[in-house]
């Protein structure tokens, strides 16, 4: 096997390999030990475009889990101030549903078809981070107000505030990681 320009070939652990980049993917060709005639059995498989996509996937799933916990905890607490906690519920539930739609469209491969996927994803997560920050601050205010009332509601509101700030941080990290990669 000969290597063409833009590819790399060699031996690794007794196996022949060759990798090259195409217009849309990076491919790897690897082979086994070979048969009696010295012919190598080769397999062609695409490699991940970058190593950051695994961390992006993990971060997207964490956004869904923590965002879900925010609205579940706010819904479980006794509402002391409906206007404040109504905004927290609106932001967390809407963000959860839109993020779930974006995650599913990502898993279905729509990001490969459209060049503007990175811009859309960064703008959405940046805007949602700002809205989540306002919701987290309002949730903290509702927590402070519920401190003197019921201790169970206070603990639920405290946990919801913690998850709201963690979710805000994850949205910020996701927006910047998409922008810089």
Automatic annotation (TrEMBL):
Any GO molecular function: structural constituent of myelin sheath
Recorded topology in the membrane: Multi-pass membrane protein
Keyword entries, A-Z: Membrane, Transmembrane, Transmembrane helix
GO biological process, one term: myelination
Compartments reported by the entry: Membrane
Main location: membrane
Boundaries of every MARVEL domain copy: 51-181
Chain segments annotated as transmembrane: 58-81, 87-111, 123-142, 154-173
Domain of life from the UniProt record: Eukaryota
A single Gene Ontology CC term: membrane
PROSITE patterns, per database record: MARVEL
PANTHER family recorded: MAL-LIKE PROTEIN, MARVEL-CONTAINING POTENTIAL LIPID RAFT-ASSOCIATED PROTEIN
Listed name of the protein: Mal, T cell differentiation protein like
Protein species of origin: Equus asinus
Lineage: Eukaryota, Metazoa, Chordata, Craniata, Vertebrata
């Amino acid at each position: 096997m000969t290597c063409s320009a833009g590819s790399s070939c060699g031996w690794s652990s007794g196996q022949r390999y060759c990798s090259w980049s195409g217009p849309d993917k990076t491919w790897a060709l690897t082979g086994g030990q070979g048969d009696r005639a010295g012919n190598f059995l080769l397999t062609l498989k695409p490699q991940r475009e970058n190593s950051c996509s695994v961390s992006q996937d993990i971060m997207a799933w964490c956004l869904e889990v923590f965002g879900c916990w925010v609205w579940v905890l706010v819904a479980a607490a006794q509402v002391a101030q409906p206007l404040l906690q109504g905004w927290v519920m609106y932001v967390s539930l809407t963000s959860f549903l839109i993020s779930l739609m974006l995650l599913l469209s990502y898993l279905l491969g729509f990001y490969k078809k459209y060049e503007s996927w990175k811009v859309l994803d960064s703008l959405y997560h940046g805007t949602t981070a700002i809205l989540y920050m306002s919701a987290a601050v309002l949730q903290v205010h509702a927590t402070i107000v519920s401190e003197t009332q019921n201790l169970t509601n206070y603990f639920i509101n405290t946990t919801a505030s913690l998850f709201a700030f963690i979710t805000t941080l994850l949205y910020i990290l996701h927006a910047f990681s998409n922008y810089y990669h």
